[in-house]
Amino acid sequence: MLPGFGKYPFGYQPFGQPQKPRLFISYHHADDQRWCDAFRQYFGNTYDLFTDNSLLRKINSDDAEYIDRKVRDEYITGSSITVVLCGPNTWKRKFVDWEIHATLDKQHALLGIILPHNAPNSTGNYVVPARLHDNIQSGYAHWIKWTTDPNEIAKSITQSKDMAKEISKIENSREQMKRNLP
Question: What's the mean pLDDT when you consider all of the chain?
Fold first, then answer.
């Protein structure tokens, strides 16, 4: 067990113990589901670093505005940090962009994690969702490469939450994506 994180039911924390962060995981469902499952299992269940406030199943609707509102109001609102798992095609997904947008509107912390199969481009940079990139550049969001070190994840969550205290650094002016990119 890591210091400051414990295993208590229903979010209960004994007096004097910090409450585990509630996080929302944003990712490309078709390409990166196995990475999300591994992240949840390893860091959420095995090491009990966070309470997962993410969708566990698809919302049964074809109405994009309804899905956006439901995710924003029922999942992101109940979290304090959004973790964006960045595979090579994550930047093309409109719902990832919308989830980052909602996170920033709520002034929640933002952490990008570069997945192992997301190789750097010819200039040595990683391609991540544009809105996440804007906030990494502004100093509001934090990013790391994928790790299996629970201490590194715990430290990165804490660092992201500390960075999010500077709400003047939020960059959320980019127009929301209207559709997925090919």
Answer: 88
